[in-house]
Amino acid sequence: MAKKILEVKNIKKYFPLQTNFFGKTQSWVRAVDDVSLYIEEGKTLGIVGESGCGKTTLGRTILRLHEPTGGHIYFDGKDITNISKKSLRKIRPQMQIIFQDPYSSLSPRMPVGEIIGEAVRVHKIVPKEEYKDYILDVMKKCGLQTHYFERYPHEFSGGQRQRICIARALALNPRLVICDEPVSALDVSIQAQIINLLKDLQKDFGFSYMFISHDLSVEEHISDNVGGMYLGSLVESGPKEKIFSNPMHPYTKALFSAVPVPDPNVKMKRIILKGDIPSPANPPKGCKFHTRCKECMDICKEITPFFNEYEPGHFCACHLYAQNHEALNNYMVLKNYLSGYKATQEKIDQIKSLTDKKLSSYDSLMVKMFIIDEKVEIYLKGRASDITEFNAKYLVNSAKVIKERKFSRVPIKFKVENEGDLSAAKDLIDTLMSANGYLKTATNEVTYTFTSSDDNERRSGSVLSIKPLIIDSEINKRKEAAEALKEKKV
Ligand SMILES: Nc1ncnc2c1ncn2[C@@H]1O[C@H](COP(=O)(O)OP(=O)(O)OP(=O)(O)O)[C@@H](O)[C@H]1O
Ligand code: SF4
Ligand SMILES: [Mg+2]
């Protein structure tokens, strides 16, 4: 994989909506809600989605034109989420944005040369004596004649103005350019010219783009990877070929069913989505798409699906594909059980009878929650990184439920069977520790068993074999204290 120029982890941007009498915010518009993505150097990530789904807010938050509400932004490997305005100004030339509307983004009182060159001068991109030649060169590269230098924006057509905007961004020698619907205000032939210009510049200078557009055929032309957004969240992302020819998520399936196919023998099966887009101020619980999804299951109304990687680089957030579908069901059973509803014997038998299978790469993990004789046994098996990313969150969720329901006397047993690299399990340990935080009560018996298929790791005494000891010793201390108390009473 090429180097990641941008990586975004769990980014959120909430706008305050309502305040109470004391000025405290009571509700928020969740314009961007827990988005994770990356862009490789020299590549283009297309972002598609219905109007209002948060594309522009995502782009602006990445550039910190909006301050993120949560999450992390890494540019060229450096965390820029909280860096000062001064440090941000230094890297600003490397991250540029091109807006949809070339009319309002150009100052009408400045000549074109000055518009393109202003930031070049401020950031001292070239020595003073080379300044004019540099700007003329950039103009030529963007298909603008050099005698336009002294002319004003109102003397140009829409396509030419967008070229001026591109030249302004390019002149700063950026590494990442966020293009927010840069061609949607232009007619089709000009659109093609601008797209080709962006592609040529990418080839010559190695820029990376995040390309936001409504127009899927434009995305198909320019993008290497594509991400589909719904109500502030990314529901699917992956290589363009996969997303266009074989989308996984029911929302992206509907979106891409509308792309015309240039083959008269292919019958288009357009999926029409029913229902209105819910308000981002009050998104549906569970999977945000469940109110419009034909495939909706019970679990979708309760639990937000994780954004899982199903093939290299192909991510999707949908319960339909979760390998551990059975784990989710188990989780539901556990949840119902703990809220006073007894799972049917049949269901419990079904869970008990799940047999261990040989794990393939796509079927690489397994979570089981046994409820046997009033005991909860949570069993995870798989690669540590998969366990970390996906299942440990369910673990913490179940721990929360247990805590909420004050089921403090339920003995809980975590059995973690790890395949492969133990160093990747650090996060898992942290998650278990946090679950432990929820579970700690004087009477809870929480045990952990960690094993590894990797003998070398085991011998070298990795994190796994150290941290559980700490947990065990804590538990032992508690046990001793409880026994001492018992003896005292006796
Ligand atoms: N500054 C703001 N204050 C409050 N709400 C905002 C603000 N900016 C955007 N929003 C809300 O955030 C949501 C996402 O808006 P955004 O402009 O990012 O959508 P978009 O996907 O770019 O839409 P479009 O395709 O129409 O450009 C919308 O509900 C919008 O009303
Ligand atoms: S999680 Fe459920 S509701 Fe959401 S897209 Fe998948 S099937 Fe539909
Ligand atoms: Mg927008």
- How would you write the strand order of the largest sheet? 6-7-8-3-9-10-12-11
Cα-atom Rg, whole angstroms?
A: 27 Å
- How would a textbook summarize the main sheet? 8 strands, mixed
Broad structural category: alpha/beta
- DSSP strand (E) fraction? 15-25%
* Residues in helices, as a percent range: 25-40%
- The residue ranges in which pLDDT falls below 50 over 5 or more consecutive positions are 334-343, 350-375, 382-391, 405-410, 420-426, 434-475
Average pLDDT: 74
How many beta-strand runs?
16
Query: Helical segment tally?
Result: 15
Identify the bound ligands: adenosine-5'-triphosphate, iron/sulfur cluster, magnesium ion
The rough form would be described as: globular
Beginning-to-end CA distance, first to last residue: 66 Å
Note the main attributes of this structure.
4-stranded antiparallel sheet; 16 strands; binds adenosine-5'-triphosphate; binds magnesium ion
How would you explain this protein's 3D organization?
With 490 residues, this protein is α/β, with parallel strands linked by helices. The chain has helices spanning 55-62, 85-91, 112-122, 131-141, 158-170, 188-205, 216-222, 240-245, 250-256, 325-338, 345-352, 384-404, 426-439, 455-460, 463-489; strands spanning 4-19, 25-40, 44-48, 70-75, 78-79, 95-98, 176-180, 208-212, 225-230, 233-239, 308-311, 314-316, 365-372, 375-383, 412-419, 446-452. The strands form 3 sheets. Strands 6-7-8-3-9-10-12-11 form an 8-stranded mixed sheet, sandwiched between helices. Mean pLDDT is 74; it is low at 334-343, 350-375, 382-391, 405-410, 420-426 and 434-475. Residues 55-56 line the site of magnesium ion.
